[in-house]
Amino acid sequence: MRRQRMQSQTRFLIPVLALSGIVVFSSILSAQPGRPRTSQGKSQEPKTGPGASYKPLGQWQVAPIDRTKKSQIQQAARKIDQLVSANYQKYQVKPHPKTSDEQFVRRIYLETTGAIPTLGQAKSFMDSRDLAKREKLIDHLLESQGYVSHTYNYWADILRLKDRPANIVFGEPFIEWVKKSIAANEPYDIWVRAMMTAEGKPWENPAVGYQLRDMGMPLAAMDNTIRIFMGTQIGCAQCHDHPFDRWTQQEFYELAAMTFGARMRMRPADYGAKKNRNRELINSTTKVKDKGVPQGAINRMINANTVAVIGDPKVRLKYPHDYYGENAEPGELVKPSFLFTSNRDPDPKRLRDSFAEWLTSKDNPRFSKTIANRLWKQAFGRGLIEPADDIRDDTVAENPELLDFLVRELHRSNFDLRYLRRVIYNTEVYQRQALNETVEAYEEYHFPGPLLRRMTAEQVWDSFLTMAVKNPLAYRSPSTRAFGGLAELDLSTIQPSEVIQKVGAFEDRYGGVGLRNYRKPYTYKGQLLARASEQPAPLPAAHFIRQFGQGDRESIEGGTTEGTVPQLLAMFNGSITHIMLEKGSVIHGNVLRAKSVNSQIDDIFLTILSRRPNSTDRKTAVREMQAQGAAGYGNVIWALVNTREFLFIQ
Fold first, then answer.
1. How far apart, in whole angstroms, are the C-alpha atoms of residue 138 and residue 231?
2. What percent of the chain has pLDDT over 70?
3. In a domain? residue 520
4. Residue 490: beta bridge partners?
5. How many domains, in total, are found in the chain?
6. Under a CB-based contact definition with an 8 Å cutoff, are residues 374 and 417 in contact?
7. Rounded Cα gap, residues 397 and 244, in angstroms
8. What is the dihedral of CA 308, 311, 316, 317, to 10 degrees?
9. Based on the domain organization, do 487 and 628 belong to the same domain?
């Protein structure tokens, strides 16, 4: 039974305003347009806070969109619309009306860049009379810095990316590598293959970070890999035959044997040292006086230099002691094999390479289907197959012909995920209005338009940042270009005093004190004014982003968009909402520049909701401003960000 999820847009403004007297925006009426003035009358930029013009710390080199494929994109988009329309007729579904420009510009910014458009961006699009403006905006946003940031957030939730997956594992190089791969528009199959086959230390070959994420848990790592990249859950078969699917315990172990021959820790012989060199080196550093470097940091760095992915064909998987299958005995060596029927046999001398080639092959029955389904779900709020990570032999897509077409387009583009997103965003079905009802998991949905969805935690934060900070993309996490030079220790020859010196230099740049100093110019009232993609991973549980549902990066897709009481409190009295209302914020400047009360109201609505107010909205806002004076402006702003219209993607 479907239930209405979002009522009319204006219904929430009036009751919220009655509660919003705690917000004060007194500078609106008294302040003059422009920058703050010194006693000599000269302009002066604030050093920190929402009004500061932060120095950008770098940008990603984003690969440009291939605009010569315009006709190919249009043709593919029309085909998708035809396949969806066939189901309208089959199931007697009435498609939703086309989105207005106001609805579309907000949706496409949120779903490509992860944040609402600025006032200028919204106005520019809505005022344009270019008949191809939607298509051009899609292309522009897919090659923007915001696209890299938002797409990273999507993958960070799936890959469970953390700064420190383990105490002695540095995750920063891998995180940066993921962002650079997105910016370069690396083909999906090549990207995945690199993660499966990488060898070396994290700062030598950052792609090893994927394998190090589950260091010491090779069976769990295989379960996660198949779930992420093949949309199939085989974890139950680790202990027994899968109770609801075809997988046997033997098949699980045969597949796990493909990647088992990779060690995650170096042995002393690998770096030319005697057996107890690490322990002796750690003990020796404790005897050096006045070092000024935490012993824990020294111990961690020495041990971190033994962490590396090393292919070792001599390492073989054995069946566990409690194995009960019919075709092998406990303790027996496992013969590596692929899942499903395969016309190839793994190369025993290069098992991980064989696994990666099989996994990412166009012939793999689920690799392409899984990512095509994931991208459709990201755009529409629901996959053609649900759940997206539990595909089985008897699973039937909502529209099998459509899913097959998406897979063919993916193959034709050589696994260009940005190309497939571009096709989907140019369809009529994507550009229709959202369904304002909840669709239960057991209900069929035939896509009269996208589902109405609440923003992710990262989208909420990044949208607030857009309204608060002049250049929210200015801050970038520290580059790992110099990471290896500071982290690398030659454990066979290095002396204790040299260890302390190098660890001290590393801590000054990448350690706790170093990071605090690096972030300080971009921190205001305890908040790092940076996009969610550049925040520490994971964030503390009390952070706004975590309160709004960002996961702890322990489980695949651990984020949630469910509402909670802490979210209400954060919206009522959270620090980021107060920063947004301070003098110097973006929305503060927008209101100051407006020439009349009506223009101010227009710009407030356009900044927050990407639309102009209707007559009821305008009367309510004017009445509040007249009744509350200067504070009324802040009350209107505060009320709008607390509406469902702000938090949901229409």
1. 28
2. 90
3. yes
4. none
5. 2
6. no
7. 19
8. 60
9. no
Block residue for tokens 């094999």: 337
pTM flag (> 0.85)? yes
Alpha helices in 98-168 (DSSP H): 101-113, 119-127, 133-142, 145-159
Residue 642 neighbours by CB under 8 Å, 6+ apart: 12, 16, 20, 571, 572
**In whole angstroms, what is the distance from residue 403 CA to residue 633 CA?**
49
Closest by CA position to 221, among listed 196, 204, 189: 196
* Residue 218 and residue 263 in contact, taking contact as beta carbons nearer than 8 Å: no
Does residue 537 lie within any of the structural domains?
yes
**Do 501 and 546 have their domain in common?**
no
pLDDT in tens, 118-144: 999 999 999 999 999 999 999 999 999
Q: What is the span of the domain harbouring residue 516? A: 277-305+479-528
Residues 518 and 571 in one domain: no
DSSP letters spanning 618-649: HHHHHHHHHHHTHHHHHHHHHHHHTSHHHHEE
Model confidence pLDDT, tens digit, residues 306-355: 999 998 777 889 998 888 777 888 899 999 988 876 666 788 888 999 99
Rounded to an integer, what distance in angstroms lies between the CA atom of residue 226 and that of residue 356?
11
pLDDT tens digit sequence for 445-498:
999 999 999 999 999 999 999 999 999 999 999 999 899 999 999 999 999 999
Helix axes 119-127, 101-113, angle to 10 degrees: 130
Residues 114, 459 contacting (CB under 8 angstroms)? yes
**Residue 263 bridge partners (DSSP):** 310
Number of neighbouring beta carbons within 10 Å of residue 160: 22
For 271-315, write each residue's pLDDT tens digit. Answer: 888 888 888 899 999 888 667 899 999 999 999 999 999 987 778
Q: Which residues of 163-190 are buried (b: 16+ CB within 10 A; e: fewer)?
A: bebbebbbbbbbbbbbbebbbebbbbbe
Chain segment 412-454, per-residue pLDDT in tens: 999 999 999 999 999 999 999 999 888 888 889 999 999 999 9
Tokens at 367, concatenated: 């690799």
Indicate the Cα dihedral angle 557, 560, 561, 566, nearest 10°.
Answer: -150
Residue 551 included in any domain:
yes
Domain identity same for 493 and 624: no
* Per-chain mean pLDDT for the chain: 88
